[in-house]
Every structure is written in structure tokens, then in C-alpha cells.
Write the C-alpha cells for this entry.
Amino acid sequence: MKQSRSRLGVAAAVLALLALAGCSYDATKVPTHKESPAAEPTPASCETTDADLRSYDPSKAAGDAVNRIRKAGVLKIGVSADTLLLGARNPSTNAIEGFDIDVANQIAKALGVEPQYRVINAGQRIELLEDREIDIVARNMTINCTRWQSVAFSAEYYRAGQKVLVRPDVADKYAGPQDLAGLKVCAPTGTTSVDNIKAAEPDVISEPALTHTGCLVKFQQGQVDAITGDDTVLAGLVAQDKLYAAVPKQDAFTKEPYGIATNADDKDLVAFINAVLEDMRTNGTWQKSYDTWLKPYLLIDATQPQPAYGRP
């Protein structure tokens, strides 16, 4: 028992240090009064339908946004640095890498500019795009109708689903969100996961953290009973801690279509990104990245989602 407590303390300390390191990686500074917003702005609610997955027709024609980025010589990208498999700092090289980072790099390469990463939390995504502190967000961001009121999205580039992570000793008994009634469940602020888990089981006690790494620290310290989030994110947490964390076999209780987000006015940039995503489909770049980062942990033979275009 003493060894278990010692291990938990060490793991929590290491993860906390990683989270702090990620927050200091910004290439540019956020104004003090906006540094850590608790959550994304929440425009009037709406019901997301398949029509909300429609994006602008792909085109590599240069408009105002594309020309601005090319003139600057850099693509400012909001990313995660602690979401293993999607966007995380490699402790050996200090580079941020993962599936989302591969997609962002392909966009920068096609634009002919250097990628400039800015580590952000989920609650900062929309505000920093609106303030033009960053050009795009490549941070497992779900496309929905509410967010379309504030930002623009590329076509869907990955379809995730929300699931639950628990302790290995209770994984076999887990049958669905109803088993979480009265339990403390962690999800990052500014994500759709918080609302989704409450909708699935209203008696869940929500215990938020700024990031999923923060949730994992709380989980290891016994402050929460479970973590909820996209299956991609939870797979990364299990990869970090196979001893204390497990994602039991379960059906996803939401659909989470990921899109690259931009400022709402940058339609030409969205069209350009969609053209890059089409290139990734035809040249095998998307499949190679998925097979490298996600397939070994999700154990699913996935392919790039079919895009939906025709947004006016």
C-alpha cells in the first residue's frame, strides 16, 4: 500500500510538471486578463445536425487569409501539448507531436510557411481565434452548430466518440454512464464532454480540470472516480498509466466529429485546408498518420471520414 501511494505521488508530480511545461511553450503571450479563461464563450444553443458538418468547397485559391499567412511566413496554430497521441510534448526531443500535429504540419507545408505552435487549453480555442492571436486550432475540436456561430470549421477529419475511463478493477463491471450516478467524474472545462456526461447521467458529480492531464492527476490521487472524454484522448491517458487507468469495452455515447477551426471570416483559409485534407486522403498521408498514432491504441481500422461540402 505504501508503494502504491508513493507511485501515485510521483506520477502526479511528473504529470503536473508536464502540464506546466506545456503552458509555457507559447510563442506569443496572451494578455494577462485573458490568460486562462474558464470556458469557451457560449452563444445561443442549437441542435447539431448533419448539415452542420458541411464546410466550404475545397480550393487552393489564395484569398485575404491565405495571403496574410504567407506574408507573415508562419501559420500560428493552437495545439495541446499534453494530449498523448493527438498533441503532446516528446520528453526526449521537446517537440510537440501526434495525429493533430501531423494534420497541422501538412497545412503549413501546403501554405509554404513554418508552423508556429501555441499551447492552449480547450477554453481558449474560440477566443484566441476571434482575437486573431492564432490562425487555426488543431486540438481535437468537435464541430457543432453552437461553435459555428463563433468560428469556421474545415470538413471533418476524424470521427471520435465520447467514452469513460475507470480503474481496471471496476472496468469489467462498467455497463454505461448510468453506473456513474453519484460518482465524481472529471472532464476539462471548455469541452463538450462536460455537458454530454451530464446529459447521459444527470446524477454525475462533475469535477472539472483545465486539461485531461489535470483529470488524470485527480484520478490518480483519488479525487475523482472516472474521467470522460473522446476515445482518442482516453487512449492516450491509458498509454500513460496502464496500471491505474482502463477504458472498458463500451459503445461511445456521442459522436465527436473533429474539424480544424479558424476565424469565422477566414473562409478562403478553410477552403484551402479542405483541399489539403483531400490531398491527405489521396496520397495516403492521413492513413499513415492514423496508423502511427491512434490505431495501436484504439485497435480500430479507421479511414478518413467522407467530407461534406456546399456550405454557403
Summary: The chain has twelve helices and 14 strands. Residues 162-240 form a domain with the D-Maltodextrin-Binding Protein; domain 2 fold (CATH 3.40.190.10).
